[in-house]
Amino acid sequence: MVSWLARHLGPATSFQYWICAWFGPPVSGAFMRAEGTIRCVAVTLERIRAAAEQIRGAIVETPFLHSRTLSEIAGCDVRLKYENLQFTASFKERGALVKLLSLSDEERQRGVVAMSAGNHAQAVAHHARRLGIPATVVMPRFTANVKVENTRVLGARVVLKGESLEEASACAHEIAREEQKSFVHPYDDEEVIRGQGTVALEMLEAEPGLDALVIPVGGGGLIAGSAIAARAIRPEIEVVGVQTARFPSMIQALEGRPVECGPSTIAEGIAVKEPGELTLPMIREHVSDIAVVEEVDLEAAVLLLVEIEKTVVEAAGAAGLAALLAHRERFAGRRVGLIVSGGNIDLLILSSIIQRGLVRSHRLVRLLVEVRDVPGALAAVTGIIGEANGNIVAVQHQRAFTSSPLQTVDVGFVVEARGPEHVEEILAALVSSGYEARVLDL
């Protein structure tokens, strides 16, 4: 599925954003709502540069590297910004730290509250502990245990509340009011947006001639800050967002449609149902398009990054590469910067992605072979597969649930192979030896 929002805008004449969100959708104006008050908001290139100076030395200036192999596969010049190499393995540290540094001494003493199911939680916990700020993080009850424990290990008080991020958010705001703590929003905050924009600064400092940035979109903090910085430095650059087909919330919001999302996606880092009130108008003005990718595209991208770049990336972090692979003609021949936004992937999910990827590339196949039900017959078949350099990893006999003649047995083999051509060689070897054999479909 592809959805392109044709919003090709020229460079803004001013990089000052005055956004009005006073009890209503964002429109042109001079204020934003903040806990029942009105205050001015500005996100500019100058302030993003100031944020970069604020966090220098406390954040990893991650590598921004050209990938020769991925460039050949995608048909464009691919450069990867490895934000998965931050201490907590995501770009979220940038925005969280800028926000924490903006607090007064009194606010720091009272502490902060955040809501997150993963990366933002760990980022806030880590930098709050560094700065001596008490931190409470509210996480939905379904949050994976490893993420909960990682957040606790980083020093935060963890509250498990609600069946969804929305319910956890309501609880976090309630704690903030009752305990007079500052709320650290994961994306809809000018300080957070400024911090996230420092990613694009580093990318364009390293490679000023980029033609496009392709950036995952959840609530919009990363792409909003990056787009403001990038378009200010290089007005002709194109900024393209990426969302999943199951969670196209930002696209729907930009089109003025009710937000309707699917039940789940492996890219949970960008599975956001409520786009930011601040980020929405920024994206509308400075983001050219938003591409939609399917789950299978995300799986393929995660596997390629593991196999080719030897880097572990969560599905949201691989969304940019997924977009390049799914929409090759869109980026053909261009110099494209991708933000590998995070690497916090559950190991069971990663294992499943690898296994499924091996199956799709025919490096792991199921063969069904009809064999005589006599002693030594199975050994003969396995010998043929072995001589064809197939590695058998599982065998299953089937005598009852089969239409094969009596005194024969269907034997299923799970075989490691080098790819489709090798699988055909194994089948040919079996057939030439008088066996009926076929590959079982997915």
| Rg over CA atoms | 26 Å
Q: How would you classify the helix and strand content by structural class?
A: alpha/beta
Number of domains: 3
**CATH C-level category of the largest domain:** Alpha Beta
Beta strands, count: 18
Helix content: 40-55%
| Stretches with pLDDT under 50, minimum 5 residues | 1-40
- Main-sheet strand order equals 5-6-14-11-12-13
Number of helices: 17
| CATH architecture descriptor text of the largest domain | 3-Layer(aba) Sandwich
Q: What spatial form do the alpha-carbon principal axes imply?
A: elongated
Percent strand: 15-25%
- Mean pLDDT, nearest integer? 89
Give the termini distance in whole angstroms.
21 Å
The CATH topology of the largest domain is what?
Rossmann fold
The biggest sheet, with number of strands, parallel, antiparallel or mixed sense and barrel status, is: 6 strands, mixed
